[in-house]
Amino acid sequence: MDAPSPLEQRLIDLEIKASYTDDLLDRLNEEVVRQQAQIDLLKREIGRLQQLVQDSTTGPAPSLRDELPPHY
């Protein structure tokens, strides 16, 4: 078998690089999808926690006058 010509070798190298690039792009896309799912979960959790805080602090805020000691 003859060695590939420089042009053929260059084409082979480019095809290999393109293959690695496609694989990298696929892996990065999977990571972005995974991170988006995590972000969505965290947003829901924050909303749930905000609702809990809101529910626990129902009613008007206490007046500072109500906080005065009895001897005033």
Automatic annotation (TrEMBL):
Coiled coil: 25-52
Keywords: Coiled coil
Pfam families recorded: SlyX (PF04102)
Region (Disordered), start-end ranges: 53-72
Record's protein name: SlyX protein
